[in-house]
Amino acid sequence: MKMTLPFTCPCESKSRLKSIDGGYICTKEGCEHALEDNRFPIVNGIPVLVSETKCDTVCEAGSTQTYISRPLRDYSFIRKLVVGEGTTTKDNCKVFIEELFRINEYPKVLVIGSGEKGSGTEMLWNNNSIEVHGIDVYGTDSTHAICDAHYLPFEGESYDGVWIQAVLEHVVQPTMVVDEIFRVLKLSGIVYAETPFMQQVHEGAYDFTRFTVLGHRYLFNRFEAIRFGGNKGPELVFAWSIRYLVWSITRSRALGRIVGLAIGLLMRPLEYLVSNESMHDASSGVFFLGRKLANHTLTHKELIKLYRGQMK
């Protein structure tokens, strides 16, 4: 899919980029990226909009390669067998789409972290009435531009929706990324985020943060909440823990994965027994679905009143 919105320079000016042979240059006079020798390149057909000089970033300008090893095979079947086909993301995706169509007949959505299409997002990617633009720090068939989410290379109020799933744990400054999401969303635009809570590190040096349900809610304190909560319960958390325990004892990642899968299967029936309250205290992940308003800020006292866990 070709981007229909003009790119901007990822630096503070957010000046528009101009297409030239082999890449893009900034239209702001005096910007170092206005020089052809400092263009943002197109590599393997994907624009790489990363500035290592204007931005503090872990990304590398001109690179489309992943920064961690990723499995070449599709393990989605095994993952569904162990984790289950949970309905939380699918249900939230459905509501996300419904809210989008209340804003625009043909909405535009930015997916941050599109290198792998997230589980439960099929209806978003397959809806012909929604224009989906995917960005990530590495290139795949579902990546339309490479950039750092701390410095989104788009004009303000460009999108009706932003979807960010399993990404905020991999950015150094989540609040900065959420501020960027707020900036590129139109007024009344919809954001959906999923982030781990009780999970071990899973991308090595590129894994920084975890959130409780309330901590995640406050990360989006400038947004009105449509729904928020936990995603996957303590039974999956237990399987994750056993997997990493075996790995740490045996030093074998493969063995840890095998044992974790086995425990995950044994734990599956328990998901129907865990309490709703436990999803605030011991969930594997958390989610937030919200709307951008002109003047909205969740206060600390309001935040505390939102707790629905077992530790009252």
What share of the residues does DSSP label as strand, in percent?
15-25%
Q: Going across the biggest sheet, name each strand in turn.
A: 7-6-5-8-9-11-10
Question: SSE order in H/E notation?
Answer: EEEEHHEHEEEHEHEHHHEH
Radius of gyration, CA atoms, in whole angstroms: 20 Å
Describe the oligomeric state of these chains in a short phrase: single chain
Helix content: 25-40%
Annotation, overall tally of beta strands? 11
Unreliable stretches:
none
- Mean pLDDT value: 93
Shape: globular
What is the CATH topology of one domain?
Rossmann fold
Gross CATH architecture of one domain: 3-Layer(aba) Sandwich
Structural class: alpha/beta
Largest sheet descriptor: 7 strands, mixed
CATH class of one domain: Alpha Beta
- Distance N to C terminus: 49 Å
Any idea what the CATH superfamily of one domain is called?
Answer: Vaccinia Virus protein VP39
The number of helical elements comes to 9
